[in-house]
């Protein structure tokens, strides 16, 4: 089974931490990715506006919107200017994955909601979702070190499963669409 996760198009935002804020996407150029997407795969999408807009720009008809695919809830950090985020200092990946901002979920919490969905997939799947969703998928292979991966807008990450074992085929594939 092959899992392809496409991060949504760039957010039309205000230069602040997004998390679960439901902001629109700039889908200009997204259509260039369409020929490179897997054919015949089921399509799942995060309910976020930016993900639904990206899917529509690619002429994808999602089989369903899946609430488990929402981006990480960053609680009190959502809406803050990036320069107002607290300095957590150097944290090992495991500690960073467990860190939970006030009123938020940790990366581990988010992965605990995303990973069971991914493990339950039984056929080739294309997901349109978030950077956090991509990192949660990568964590099935590399654990909390997944937090170190770059995930650009309109990039694809591909994993393969043989039996219960997952392998990373490719990460952060960009085709100049962004």
Put simply, the count of helices is 4
Number of strands: 6
Residue share in β-strands: 15-25%
Work out the radius of gyration: 16 Å
CATH superfamily: Phosphoglycerate mutase-like
Low-pLDDT ranges: none
- The CATH architecture classification is 3-Layer(aba) Sandwich
Order of helices and strands: EEHEHHEHEE
How can the largest sheet be summarized? Answer: 6 strands, mixed
Helix fraction bin: 10-25%
Organism: Paracoccus aestuarii
InterPro entries: His_Pase_superF_clade-1, His_PPase_superfam
Protein name: Histidine phosphatase family protein
Can you offer a commentary on this structure?
The chain has 178 residues and is an alpha/beta fold. It has one domain: Rossmann fold (3-Layer(aba) Sandwich). The chain has 4 helices and 6 strands. A 6-stranded mixed β-sheet has the order 3-2-4-1-5-6. Helix 3 crosses helix 4 (131-142). The model has no long low-confidence stretch (mean pLDDT 95). It comes from Paracoccus aestuarii.
């Amino acid at each position: 089974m092959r899992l392809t996760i496409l991060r949504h198009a760039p957010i039309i935002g205000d230069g602040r931490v997004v998390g679960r804020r439901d902001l629109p996407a700039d889908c200009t150029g997204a259509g260039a990715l369409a020929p490179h997407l897997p054919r015949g795969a089921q399509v799942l999408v995060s309910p976020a506006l930016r993900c639904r807009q990206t899917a529509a720009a690619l002429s994808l008809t999602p089989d369903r919107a899946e609430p488990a695919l929402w981006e990480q809830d960053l609680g009190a950090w959502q809406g803050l200017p990036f320069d107002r985020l607290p300095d957590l200092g150097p944290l090992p990946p495991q500690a960073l994955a467990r860190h939970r901002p006030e009123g938020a979920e940790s990366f581990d919490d988010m992965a605990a909601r995303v990973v069971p969905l991914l493990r339950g997939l039984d056929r080739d799947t294309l997901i349109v979702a978030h950077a956090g969703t991509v990192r949660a998928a990568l964590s099935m292979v590399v654990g909390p070190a997944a937090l170190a991966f770059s995930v650009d807008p309109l990039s694809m990450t591909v994993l393969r499963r043989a039996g219960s074992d997952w392998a990373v085929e490719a990460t952060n594939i960009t085709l100049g669409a962004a």
